Amino acid sequence: MSEPVALKLTAKDFKSDQEVRWCPGCGDYAILAAVQQFMPELNIPRENTVFVSGIGCSSRFPYYMNTYGMHSIHGRAPAIATGLSVSRPDLSVWVVTGDGDALSIGGNHLIHALRRNVNLKILLFNNRIYGLTKGQYSPTSEVGKITKSTPVGSADAPFNPLSLALGAEATFVGRTIDSDRKHLQSVLRAAAEHSGSAFVEIYQNCNIFNDGAFEQLKEPGTRDDYLIRLEHGQPITFGKDGQFCVVHPPGGFGLEVRETASTPAEEIVVHDATVDDPAYAFALSRLPGFDLRNTPIGVFRSVRRPSYDSVVQGQLADARATVTESPEQQLAGLLGSGDTWTIVG
Amino acid sequence: MSKQIRQLERVVIRFAGDSGDGMQLTGDRFTSETAQLGNDISTLPNFPAEIRAPAGTLPGVSSFQVHFADYDILTPGDAPNVLVAMNPAALKANLADLPRGADIIVNTDEFTRRNLAKVGYASSPLDDDTLAGYAVHPVALTSMTIGALTELDVSKKDAERAKNMFALGLLSWMYSRPYESTLRFLERKFAKRPELVAANVAAFKAGWNFGETTEDFAVRYEVKPAKMPPGTYRNITGNAALSLGIVAAGVRSGLPVFLGAYPITPASDILHELSKHKRFGVTTMQAEDEIAAIGAALGASYGGALGVTTTSGPGVALKGETISLAVALELPLVIVDVQRAGPSTGMPTKTEQADLNMALFGRHGEAPVAVIAPKSPSDCFHAALEAARIALTYRTPVILLSDNYVANGSEPWLLPEVDSLPDLRVEFATAPNSEDGTTFLPYLRDPQTLARPWAVPGTPGLEHRIGGLEKADKTGDISYDPANHDYMVRTRAARIETIPVPDVEVEDPDGDARVLVLGWGSTYGPIGAACRALRQRGLPVAQAHLRHLAPMPANLGAVLRSYDRVVIPEMNLGQLAHVIRGRYLVDAIGYNQVRGLPFTAAELETMLEEVLKNV
To answer: Thiamine pyrophosphate enzyme TPP-binding domain spans which residues (chain A) (predicted)?
Structure first.
């Protein structure tokens, strides 16, 4: 194989001619800009990149990318993208979805795409609210959320998207934040390099209906003490001065946060995204509460498993390996298979 | 003792037994032997939804009816001339369908007090006058089968299970069927267990020899080959033919086929069949639900495959939103609905034609699609090709309305030459199409077909976005412009309405009929048989059959208006009649039946005779 030609694409090449119509101040702008700036890095021709979305604010995303794109129907993007990806392994297929689209109406498709390990890069913009329908609580809203549809507070418990994805056998799970472009692009990079489903939750601010939902993770005064920046192969410590760390207490199932100063260095968990047992990444996903303290970001899990696409393509290739006849000859043989009889005129 | 041989023109046999008795297999084999002989054939299986209902009960009865004749026939027959009843339940469940004088072959071994009680027989119908007027042949099928296999190394259970082959052997003898293909079949089926090959072959031969030696069967019958057009034939069910039609559409279009499907009776067999044809580039995906199944198919179509999804009525209801999306995206998609009795779960193994309204109108917004219905099992092959042709040429979803009756029924199929099948090759867009040649307009239409260009991802320079939001004419950009929406709605309607479909043909041999019977889908056979019977009695009646339900043939209005009376028999409460009345202002009469069973030719004949009297 020859060396891939450098396409020399720029962010501008990925901007479509459509006027971007999110609310001013929406976190989606930052994500769009970050993705457009990141795409040239992949050196994939624009025509081989497809963005498929469902319904919701985030799902307008494909209109603004100068690639192939489909704005489909509510919740179904993973299913539609699965058909495209499986039948066109030459394409780089991205799914853009939101917390309502992916976890409520489309929950079934999301978990099945993940367990199949379809070669999709799934970006879930989580703002913990329904924006396009003007402010109802979502499946990631905190219990007791007061919204138009829950005037005395929501009664149902939310999903933890990463826990859900891990339970659905996801091979790649990561989290990042709309406002941290550098980090966002680093997670996208890892996701793009992953073969199979890559699930990325992006905390995204809806400044109209749920403003400041992730403020503590963004404010310079709090973010360092709240955020756990996962680095593969590094001990998990965080806080402005690295004063906190993550340990696996003996006898327990999960992970806990301790003071670094009083913890022997060898007890601090060294982050390894390639651990096969999803229990580790699951424990990481359970660290934060709804006050956002101890929120890990980065790549939680990245393990190898054959993608659904490659298995399906492999079966097709095996079936065709021994075929020597033309399709028409094969068809004539198939039509005339089984018990036949001939009537002579 | 040499037996008398009597010639018959036609025979209808029904094999009935417990769902574990292998009646479908027995019927299939008898059909295959009959096909080898060159008779025309039509078959109808009838089985419970339960995989194994409690043994010996009425809900557990499974049957297979085969009609064969020395002339071309159109239906599996209204009433059996012969019933093979493997137990009391099979007798009780089927007796009402038998005309007086019919032959009944009963497995007396199963007529125990316990089995009789299970179906509410106080005394054995073999001993009282329940069966007076029938020619009853009591045969100790089970014990004779076991007796015939004593020398063989098989368990008693396996020996007993071979009793269906004893029955098949007996019937094969009675109707002088060639049995070589059955022996070959048994060798293939039990290739890994030679002792079962021996047992089943021995049981078959025992049944055959029993017929030859017992005095109870004094007559042997022959049915001469039918005069059929020359060529090579095979017997085929509707679901198998439909599957092959989809494979053929892939070959003739040169496109990979992608089937997204979720298991559902009675459509699952299409998924099973297509999953075997990977060497043709057919991908099958068993999706997580009906919605994902059509979603994946649509995604594949977007990528340049022939996307297909197969289901039954409840599945179509779930797919509605995605069909609307496909209407808006203007991409090819074939949706197969093998109709079953509804509403809701209804009667999943019984037939009905009650999804026509859903196919024509069952979506939000103005969302027209093309609709095609096969008229017989073998027609499913051609209907599938036609559905693919329309989908690919006009970039539209097409609903193929099969039903349980054609899907599971079978008939001889004259194999087509591959070269004679329609050429379905398509042209993908490869270059900008604006007047100045600089930009790509994804909704700039072909003036002839009104189809938009199919620009698949991977094509440089044609990057574009499509979606469910209303699109501006030509550019495909999001548009809320009132005039544009009105134009797009009308254009999508015109795109379907102007698809050229063949004129409807009228069968009226003498040209003097004043009553027209209009049917669609699987009623073709019974309507045709009823019309023939009436004509043979000197009563003129015309038959027309709709294969294309949307758009309808251009000449249909004129045809309907040229008769004094139009009668529309349907296995629903008048869905086509409603459309015809609304569209053509013709005072059509409906004849409707929703019993989960196909029409009998006799009931249609009686009904039409009444209509003829009053014209």
So the answer is: 55-202
